Amino acid sequence: MKDKSAIHKHTKVLVPAIDYNVNEDKRLLIPFTSGEHIGFMNHDMEIVVDPKYIMYYGDCYSESDYIKVAVAHHYGYPRVNNNVSVYSRPVFGLINYQGKIMIEPKNYRLIFSKKGNVMLFTIQREDYSYGVINIKGEEIIPFGKYHWIDGFYRGFARV
Q1: With contact defined as beta carbons under 8 Å apart, do 129 and 144 qualify?
Q2: Contact status, residue 139 vs residue 133, Cβ threshold 8 Å
Q3: How many CA within 13 A on the CB side of residue 1?
Q4: Any idea what the Cα angle at residue 91 is, between residues 51 and 125, rounded to 5°?
Q5: What Rg value do the Cα atoms of the chain yield, rounded?
Q6: The pTM of the whole model exceeds 0.85
Q7: 51, 78, 106, 113 — which has fewest CB within 10 A?
Q8: 85-134 pLDDT per residue, tens
Q9: What number is the average pLDDT over the span 30-47?
Q10: How far is Cα 75 from Cα 68, in angstroms, rounded to an integer?
Q11: Cβ-based neighbours of 156, under 8 Å, separated by 6 or more
């Protein structure tokens, strides 16, 4: 018998739409896959966010929840032999319970999500600098002021 220890309460199980009961799902945005991409639908099974993301973290159970989403960022470097080495990595952003982009997934390598009622997000940019922004995208702590900033907890972050 195989070890089932990898399956726990936070594991997501994918099922075909025909076997899924949307009325039992308590989330305001329900993720779905189409090919290799992830989108989000509402309880009427209408597509709210087109499938364009490669990853997501979190769920929307209330209007104050945000979902961290990622798109692929492709980049390359020329090599000595005139070939180009191409790489891909995720860049992150945030969407709200309506599927509206709150923080555009662009050059953010990391987003530490909010903790509690604090609407501040620690961001690591592509250049590895850290800063803090609010949900409107306004810079609260300038990027590069601190070498490292942890996520917020009870209004405080380690720097």
Answers
A1: yes
A2: yes
A3: 3
A4: 155
A5: 18
A6: no
A7: 78
A8: 999 999 999 999 999 999 999 889 999 876 656 678 899 998 999 999 88
A9: 94
A10: 22
A11: none
The per-residue pLDDT for 72 is 95
Which amino acid is residue 109, in one-letter code? R
Tell me the per-residue pLDDT of 98-109, one tens digit each, with 9 for 90 and over.
999 999 998 899
By 3-state DSSP, what share of the chain in percent is helix, strand and coil, each rounded to 5? 5, 45, 55
Q: What are phi and psi of 22, to 5 degrees?
A: -65, -30
Q: Using H for helix, E for strand and C for coil, what is the string for 77-145?
A: EECCCCCEEEEEEEEEEEECCCCCEEECCCCEEEEECCCCCCCEEEEEECCCCEEEEECCCCEEECCCC
**How many alpha carbons lie under 13 Å from residue 7 in its C-beta half-sphere?**
5
